Structure formats: structure tokens, C-alpha cells
Amino acid sequence: MSAVADTHAHHDDHGHHPAGILRWIMTTNHKDIGTMYLWFSFAMFMVGGTMALVIRAELFQPGLQIVNPDFFNQMTTLHGLIMVFGAIMPAFVGFANWQIPMMIGAPDMAFPRLNNWSFWLLPPAATLLVVSLFVPGGAAGAGWTLYAPLTVQMGPGMDLTIFAVHLLGMSSILGSINIITTVLNMRAPGMTLMKMPLFCWTWLITAYLLVAVMPVLAGAVTMTLTDRHFGTTFFNAAGGGDPVLYQHIFWFFGHPEVYIIAIPAFGVVSQVIPAFSRKPLFGYSSMVYATASIAILSFIVWAHHMYTVGMPLEAQLYFMYATMLIAIPTGVKVFNWLATMWKGSLTFETPMLFAIGFLFLFTMGGFSGLVLALTAVDVQMHDTYYVVAHFHYVMVAGALFSAFAGVYFWLPKWTGRMYDEKLGKIHFWLSMIFFNLAFFVQHFLGIAGMPRRIPDYSPVFAEFNMISSIGAFGFGLSQLLLVYNVVKTIHGGRKAPARPWDGADTLEWTHLPSPAPYHSFETPPTVR
Amino acid sequence: MSAPAHAVARANRILLRKLALVAALMFGFGFALVPFYEKICQVTGIRNLLQPDQVAAANTQVDRSRVVTIEFDANTQRLPWTFKALESHRPVHPGEITHVQYEIRNTLDRPVTGQAIPSYGPQRAAQYLKKIECFCFQSQTLAPGEVRRLPVVFVLDPALPADIGTVTLSYTFFEVAGRDGKPG
């Protein structure tokens, strides 16, 4: 393949990229862009986490102590939006940027300049969200789901939120198109689809989900915008519109969105668990099919988020059974992970600990999800802390723990240095304990009937809320250990070998040194 | 995959265009859900606010053994009209065709268009109060200072659950325009 050597000469070489800030603004290198995605997502994680702590500080005791109810609602809304669109999704796009080209033996992403654009749309979007706090009337306070009619009535903060969602959506769509094209067209010779590491498969499926549903969300917020300013009445009851219509359109996006967050997390865990079990992934092809089934089913279950809007009984039953169907492919995945560990030569380094933490807590979140899928039960639980507990088990203990596993797993490849194993383990155990302290008790609060998104509560809920707030502050502070550990690794970790994990067998470990060179696989490797 | 670089770049561009088309179509799909939703609601009769109800001939049997009080309520939302029912309540027999009148007056010196949206109390009574004729089926445009009397003709379905003795029929008029009163 002589053409490759040719292009190499024209490309900017190792030393030839601009230095300083311009390097980062103008970069088209997948590793640079991956790094920026990861740092951006960590910054947003800190911002969104601070907002969560404002919420938990207010809920530490019954009564109103710290913030007024308006500001409390703005905090819950921004916390949700920032964590979903600013922290978790960019984190996994960061992993995709770093890992997919290296895992399939490609020199870079398919569209490097588009890739630069996808990233640089994010900071303006985040700025809009944060600035919206300071406009008259404050930020949007309608919850991250941005339900009409509140969104139709709010002040200019809502408009900023709508534009932020537009930018975030565009970024995701461009990033997804790039990932699909890279995976389908840029694989090294011999790397057939069914030989790809599972992480690439999960991202391929996720990217298709994103291309299909992000435009629907963009449409929903566009309709909100025209209702607000141009006299349309999609959701505005004053002209015969219907707020319930918004919920249908939103959740048509919103349920696949849940899997957009979860599926790349499955991918990371599917790399980590085999590596530390020193066995190939059990049931590789069933994993691929299970992931695809979850993605397809996610399009036909959306209304289980809205059992209380007054749907006919037949519709409720349909959505209930369809939702419970998803437990089957998810069960396939959980059992495959367990079977991978079965009789493996297990070691418990930090990535493995986080992967097992994921497995344990995500399964619990899955079970509380099954409880909520039952329409008769959900009518009692709707909008209570049980729901809050459920989705934090799948989003935080699911997606976030898996992202932590991925960071510790690939940090030696990215930086060429080993992280501090002891600190990593402390980070895991503190996260594990404080996470459960914060969220497990919320199941009880929800069953007892404490509603979500309300800054005050009956004194009977006081003890569990106090425990939950202590857990939340502990969890938040524990994350500082991660920054410290990462910075310490970059600046003084001991040198990592090319393959620090003897069970890891994908191309980035077997074919590339640590740290991975700025340009890798300019000549594609041959895969047996 | 072992193809020359320009062939890969070309294949990439083709895929980019296809995926961009999918994204554009899905943006349209979001909007297509609006008429789809309205159609489903219409077919299943879930949200039949602004169309006449179908009253089957069998339902016109009048149940003289039972009296239900219908209360009439009138509201405006950010609309400078006066709007009232000409009577506050009326006892009716289920199955009986009932005529009532409301009155609206435009207090502004410009023509204003409004739309009335009905609601019912208790909510589960909604499906039993069948409107045959209603001013809420169209929007109303009033000249400056104009006064208009508006009829409502309805039948209460005899299948109304026995524990409901009073039904409130409430209308709210909204201005048909942008939300700040600018013509839409």
C-alpha cells in the first residue's frame, strides 16, 4: 500500500503541528481530540457535580435553608442536562476518538476536520447553559426533560438552553457520522466486523442511535422555540396544542438516549473484564446481537416514562411488556460478563474493580428499572425518589463507573505512565461506599412517597435525606482523588510497558508502544 | 480496505452524505409525529376537545329518574374580553338535549381573535358530556366593542357513573396570536 507512505509525506509530521493553544484549536488528530473530549467532560462533571451538591445541601434538612425553590429547580435542570450532555456523552466520545482508530488499525478518524468541529461545538454549548443562570429569570427550571408547558412560559434562560441543546445535538450527530464511517470504512485488512473489539461494536450501534434520535430532540426543542416566539401552538394549550405531545416526542428521543449512554459503557466493560480475567470475552457474537437488540427495542418502549399521562390501558400494557422484553438481551450481557470471569485468572486492579462495581450496581439499577416498568407499580412511584435512585444506579454506577474503569485501563497507553494503583483502589472503594450511601436510601424515600424536584420535604424523611446528603458529599469529594491521580500519572508515574495488562490483546496493546505515538497505524497492520 | 487512500476517502464521503440524509429525515420525522399523534387521538377519541362528539341514536333515551346538575364556568387567559355564562347552573336529565348560552364582549378598540378550550370537572365526566354544537369548534373574531352570544348544545350520556351528581363545564378563552399578543 504505497499510497499510505505518500500521504504521510503530505501530512504534518510529528514535530510540525502548531504549538500552544493553537495546537488544540486547530488539531485534527484523533488522540488530541479524544484528550480534549475527556478533559472537557471531566470539567463538566465537576460543574454538574457541584450543582448536585447544592441540591443535596438544601435537602440535608427539611425546610428551606440555602437556596430558594426557583434556584433549586434550575439546579436540578442544569445538573441533569450538564451530566447527560456535557459529562457522560462527551466522555464516551473521547474514548471513541482515542480508541476506535487504534483498535481497528486506522491512521485516524474518517473525517479529521469534522472531528475538530464536533468537539469545538461543545464549549459554546456549555457556556450558553452556564450563562443562562445569569439572565433575568434565571436558567431553565423545567427539569432536564424540558417539559411543556413550563418551557413555553419561561424567561430568556430557556432560549439559551434550547440553543445549547441544538449545538450539543449537532456535535453528537457529526461525531456519530464520523464514528460510523470510521468503523465501516477504515478497518485494517483482515479486521472483519465480527473480529472487532466489542467496544467498537457498541460505539457503532450507539452512533446509529444518535443519528436517528438526536434530530428528533432538535425538532422537539425547535417546536418549543417557535411556540415561544413565533405563535405556533405545538405544545401551547392556548391554541389547541398539547403538552403531552411534547412528552411523546421527547421520550422517543429520550429512551434511546438512555442506551446511548449505557451501550458504550457496556463496550468498555467488555474490554476490561476479559483483560483481567485472562480469558476471551464469553459469547462475543451473542454480545453483538444483544447490543443490537437493546438498541432496536429502545425505539418502541418510550411511553413507559409517561404511564401517568392518561394513556389507554391497552397502550400501557403494550409498553409494559415491550419494556420488560429488554431485560432479556441485558440479561444475556450480564451473564456473558459473569461467564467471562468464571474460572478466569482474576486479578483486581482498579479498572477491574470499577468494572465489577459496574456489573454489581448496574444490575441493581436494571432490577429497579423492571419494577418501574410495571405500570401498576409505576403509577405509585412516578416522580418519586425511587426513580431518582433507579436512574442514578444505571447512569452513575453504570456509565460513570465504566468510564472510570476505561480511564484507569487506558491511561498507561495514553500517557505512557502507570497510575498510582493504591490511590486508584482508594478512589474505587470511596466511590463505591459513598455512592451507595447517597443513592440506596433514596429507594426507601421513593417508596415512602417523597417527590423529586421539590426543595422541601416532610420531617418524616429527614434521616434518610441526611444520610443521602452525606453520601453525596463523600462521593463528590472522592472524585478529587481521580484528578490528583491522573495529574500525578502524567507528571511522574513510572514508565508503562507497551502491554501492562497481560490479558489485554487488542491492537493498541499488541502493536503500539506506550505512550501511543502521535500518528499510529499509518501503514495498516495485518490482522489474522 | 486495502484500497488506495482516495478510494477510501470517496467511500467515506458517500457514507457521510447518506448518514446526513438520515439525520435530516429524522428531524422531519419529529415534526411528522405531530399530525400522527393528532390522528391517533382522533381515531381513539382520547383528546377530542374541538370536534363535535358522535351521539348515537340509542343514547337519546332520556333517563327521567335521575337529575344531574351542570355548572357553567367561564374564564379568559391574558385576553381583554368579558366572558360569562348566562346561567350559573342547570339541572338536566341524562340523555336530554340541552341548550345553554354564553356571552363574550371585546373590551378593546381592535379586533381580537380568541379560541375557547373546554375542560370538565370531575375529569372522568369528560367522556360522558357529548357536545353537539359548541362555539369552541371554531375560533371567534370580535370587532372592537362587539358583544356576541354563543350557543352550546350537549347531551349527557346516561352511562355517566352513578356517583357523579354534579358536572362542571368550564371554558377558557385564549387569544389566537403569539404569546405576547402579537398577531401570529
Chain-wise SSE layout:
The complex is a heterodimer of chains A (about 525) and B (about 180).
Chain A: H1 2-10, H2 20-26, H3 30-58, H4 69-104, H5 112-120, H6 122-131, H7 150-153, H8 156-185, H9 198-229, H10 243-277, H11 284-297, H12 313-325, H13 327-341, H14 350-373, H15 375-381, H16 385-415, H17 421-447, H18 462-492, H19 507-510
Chain B: H1 5-44, E1 68-77, E2 81-85, E3 89-92, E4 97-106, E5 112-121, E6 129-134, E7 140-142, E8 147-156, E9 166-175
Parallel strand pairs in B: 1-9
Antiparallel strand pairs in B: 1-3, 2-4, 4-8, 5-7, 5-9, 6-8
Characterization of the model:
The complex is a heterodimer of chains A (528) and B (184). Chain A is mostly helical. Chain A has one domain (38-510): Cytochrome C Oxidase, Chain A. Chain A has helices at 2-10, 20-26, 30-58, 69-104, 112-120, 122-131, 150-153, 156-185, 198-229, 243-277, 284-297, 313-325, 327-341, 350-373, 375-381, 385-415, 421-447, 462-492, 507-510. By secondary structure, chain B is α+β, with helices and mostly antiparallel strands. Chain B has 2 domains: 1-47; 57-175, Ctag/Cox11 (Pfam 04442) (Sandwich), CATH 2.60.370. Chain B is 22% helix and 37% strand. The termini of chain B are far apart.
